[in-house]
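I'll show a record.
***
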Amino acid sequence: MNKQDFNEGLLGFLDASPTPFHATQNMGLMFENAGFEKLDEKKKWELREGGKYYVTRNDSSVIAFTYPGSRKDYLMVGAHSDSPNLKLKPNPVIKEHGVVKFGVESYGGLLLNPWFDRDISLAGRVSYLDEKNEIQSALINVEKKIAIIPSLAIHLDDKANKERTVNKQTDICPILSTNEDFDFDAFIRWQLDRIGIKNAKEIYAHELSFYDTQKASYVGLRDDFIASARLDNLLSCYVGMLSICSVEADTPMLFIASDHEEVGSESTSGAGGSFLENTLRRMFDDYEEYVEMVRSSMMVSADNAHAIHPNYPSKHDKEHAPLMNDGVVVKINANQRYATNSQTTAKFLQRADSLGQKVQKFVNRSDMGCGSTIGPITATRIGIDTIDVGLPTLAMHSIRELAGSDDAHSLYKILREFHL
């Protein structure tokens, strides 16, 4: 796949995936189109040699894998499906001062200031009781620009450009209407009706998130950049998804996109949970074979990397300051915040070099804290040799992030050809 087609597909995937639920649904459709068979964790698996399979958990995490049978040297690619956002509280409606607004919680390490004065909408999962008295879940996406978080005018805050802070409880409530007759239950029923669910007897719960309605797009004189919400980490999800869809069934490869990375991965569908281990043990139910497979395989933990910010270059170690459109980044940390070691680095660099793909190295400034990824969590839980890599990004955790238009395609070529 050439870079233009790759990036056009990426833009569409970003726009169609406002929540981890939607991202997982879209990846599942892609896997099915590529010949993967869906498995159910609640049923016995009958895996066939030469088959391709995928399985989801909580509607928000997904694993896809080939099953060649004889080969056990898997390339595993790990990413995460969640991104920082504003999540709706269970009882969200606040009616005061002439408007209807929603109470929200900040999910993950969110940059709050960019959320002001944006046209935002709402999407996620709703659980309800159907006409047969059975609990069902459905994904909704309002799509319409239904809310905004207005800034306080500078006339009322003369220090706004010097020391502005944001109170997560009081300052970031999106406003929706001046009609105080607004009924939240009716609003949810209207959204269910839009997708053909007309007889919900009871609305029990929801997991809904606000998102920016501005579409993903190219930016730059020569389309140098891609700007979008949720590049962290749908960028890596897209790369991993396309990579495994592009290899033959006799190539041992696995892709996992886990939820809840932005809040620590400690959940049934997060990297700290049992999803990957459960899947691998069902693929290799003999313990000796399982250990042989784990120790013969390698995990590429793919997450975004901090590109050097041209307006804040001092925030980087100048010898380890990645540039956008200059190649994939290998992320290294002496304290194991990244799982990279010299052996996994050598394997990755050798493969990239053989394919003519550039690679950069990132180390955080020694006097600054370092974020982490699913890499160390997976390496610890599974015991698999792991490398942390990323795609250079600016404005990470903002409502709109920026990445180079070359780098994701470069990582795709490395992963697709890794076993060849």
